[in-house]
Amino acid sequence: MPNSKRHQGHDAALIATVAVVVAALSILPMFRLSLEIIAPQGRFSTIALQSALSSSATWIATWHSLQVGIGGTLLAVILGTSVALLVSLTDIRLRSAFVLLFVAPLLIAPQVTALAWLQLFGPASPFLKLIGLAPPLGSPNPLYSTEGIILLLGVQYAPLVFLIVRAGLRKLPRELVEAGLSSGAGKWMVLRTIILPLMTPSIIGATALAFVSCVGNFGIPAFLGIPANYLVLPTLIYQRLAGAGPSALSEVAVLSMLIGIIAMAGIFAQDYAARRRDYRIVSTSLPAAPFALGRARIMVEVLIWLLILLMLVLPLLGLLLTALVPAYGVPLNVQTATLANFKFILFEHGSASRAFANSIGLALAAAAFAVLLAVPLGYLITWRKRWWTKFLNLSAELPYALPGVVLAIASLLLFLKPMPVVGLQIYNTIWIILYAYLARFLVLALRPTITGLHQIDRALEEAAQVAGAGLMRRMRTIIFPLVAPATLAGGVLIFMTAFSELTVSALLWASGSETIGVVIFSFEQGGDSSYAAAISVLVVAITFILMLTTNMFSRHLPSGVLPWRD
Amino acid sequence: MAGLKINNVTKHFSDFAALSDVTLDIADGEFVAVLGPSGCGKTTLLRLVAGFEQLDKGEIVIGGKMMSGGRANVPPENRKVGIVFQNYALWPHMNVAENVGYSLKVAKVDRATREKRIEEALALVNLQGFGERRPANLSGGQRQRVALARCLVAAPSLVLFDEPLANLDVHLRASMEDEFAAFHKRTGTTIIYITHDQAEAMALADRIAVLDHGRLAQFATPRTLYEEPANEMVASFIAQGMVLPAEILSGAREGFCQVRILGQEAVLRCRPDEIARNDAKVCVRADDLDVVETGGIAIRVKRSIYRGGGSRIEAFPVERPDIDLHFDLPDPARLEEGAETRLAIRTGWVIPQAEGAGH
């Protein structure tokens, strides 16, 4: 039957294509990185390993990474969990507005967060000058410290913890809470003995994710740590590469492996902790009725909105004011405020305006590619389950689960020399950044696609099949249209993340392929905070516009796809 | 249009035998219901015929063409079977006309012909003028009819119905049953109709295949199933038959034989080859039992359930408390819990000894 052969051919072609692409984006770079560690520059040798591991800088940076990783995680978990409990279990008002704003720091690039806080507290802070509290010029910024880094990591990733714990609380069946209450337990008792124990898996999972994010973070320790000569592993790698160039690659490969090991240790610890007890919730039902806070409600509301003011509004205000200042240290008032910084970065500074074009192009390309690949990949993982499809899923998750530095180093190693056979050279071009973005962000479109497919009845595809439609046609006319809203929402998330990305591009950029993240970083390192702030203000504005625009389409999306949508 | 042959089909899901050695020979144009309790393998059978699952042993032949078995495994898109899904499976992103015309578009039928055939198909299910509507804006019955139109527009050789009435309310069921019967009469298509509802199967099907734990228990006309169940499973499954131990006193004579049930003698219908034996089982239904003053079997009432116009009485023989009996008692007669009375068996069926499917 030639016809049936053709259809089976399509099946095999789809599976093969998807598998090859995923392997090229995930397994290949990780394999190349491991190879470099055991056989630097193609020869088996332990010299790179020894020199990296015997350097005291390595161990100081490792210690620092653990310090800020654990500190930042603790802060994020405490803050995120408390807010999640308050928002989910009590009758506070304006919940969705609050969630939107509380989650925002997660979508703002870490280096922008760092810059904003620096502008708020620095001696040149236009805000502190406005209220007359600025320390004298020349005095150190209090954020250039371990505590500063921990504080900002906590602020950056508290929303991450919040989202995971909140999702867990939404699944908590109300009968379990009501059974506790009707057994005579008070609200605190129920919280302590029923709700928190049942939330353990969510909290542990969130802790692991926050830890991986904290140790992998580059933007915050780069902005806050480098000036104080406080290096963590990602910033140490950056400095080594910036100083010695590709010759240091073998050594930084070892360093990136160290971060990878620390991050994986976090994930395994989570796995171990989650297995020790059975926390499975068997029934599903409506979420629990909120606890009435009574007279305390207004106080709690004031408190959490103060938190928004502190975590989001004031730093962004600091950023905006700095962007309006004509020069460092000049007090800001109606006469001195200027838009010259915006004009400069948009039209006058070559690499800044180029960076906007680069970042928009990269973000669009990464989002479009991920959307196109996520649908067939998600389809294979959910609807065509085989023993090997879960490896596809794991492979797609890996480049995102590991810190960005690891992927960046792996990409460098992979493309330092021209590609074999085709002889294409993408090192030092924008294409190597695109490759790393595709690898890193694919999973952000894949996850909502899988969620979406799980909510669609597979009979819809089978109906098309009995109508005679082959795989490619079903993909185009049935599967893609049905799951598109979820996948596209993932695409928007990728665009926002890639648009102001720094960790990967800081290690991969070259003259001509600057990204927005890199330009912000360069300006700030060169002392041009006003220009850095002006770019950051635009980035934040674009992020917020995208958030609000996609919100308008949230009706068509499976719940949980847009993180900022409550 | 085509007949369907299912020969010795076996399907395992890891350790679980979903279907074991099932054989059905369905004639061209026949309406066959596949009936059984949930988990009996009827959905697996449908998915095998449609080509969504691959069989372990046996073969499936549609219209003389080998579809599954041996080396052949025709994918679903090339089998030319139609399916009416339980939850309709209408594509929400297409309107009614697009849903109905999808298979024609796949087959590259030109636009004018396509529109004409969509119109005809919608007219057949009384949905003229609904082409522009979205499935979301239709009632349950209308969605079912769109699914029917979508299925028949491609003129399939074989139509599979997967519990199509399970999601409809009682009133709609009756009218959709009429609709399906009319559909079958009009098109003459071979239909395989999966259901767990006996009344539905009895009302619609030419023949019914009863499945039990993946095995074919009996494949026969509705009347035969009811009157002459081939084994205990069918006897107790169809119309709540009571299976009672009995002793056959004389071999079959003109379709009847003399039996002794719980001490009472009666004349029951039986197969012509029935012989005298004492390990027989008989099938008796509530209608076959009469309350009598003398003779019969002494029973004690366990429970009386008012059913409007009469009561369903659950009881047990005084001598054999382990056997459950039930019968209907029309008003104004009443029997309370614990009351004793006597039952006579008017008629019944001797279940044949040999395990066998079909006749």
What gyration radius of chain B follows from the Cα positions, in whole Å? 24 Å
**C-alpha Rg of chain A (nearest Å):** 25 Å
- How much beta of chain A, percentage-wise? under 5%
The CATH architecture assignment of the largest domain in chain B turns out to be 3-Layer(aba) Sandwich
CATH-defined fold name of the largest domain in chain A: MetI-like fold
Coarse shape of chain B: elongated
pLDDT averaged residue by residue of chain B:
90
Can you put this structure into words, describing what you see?
The complex is a heterodimer of chains A (566) and B (359). In chain A, helix 5 packs across helix 23, helix 15 runs parallel beside helix 18 and helix 19 packs antiparallel against helix 20. Chain A is an all-alpha fold and 566 residues long. Chain B folds into 2 domains: 224 residues, Rossmann fold (3-Layer(aba) Sandwich); 111 residues, Nucleic acid-binding proteins (OB fold (Dihydrolipoamide Acetyltransferase, E2P)). Chain B starts with a strand and ends in an 8-residue tail after the last strand. Chain B is α+β, with helices and mostly antiparallel strands and 359 residues long. Chains A and B meet through helix 1, helix 19 and helix 20 of A and strand 6, strand 7 and helix 2 of B.
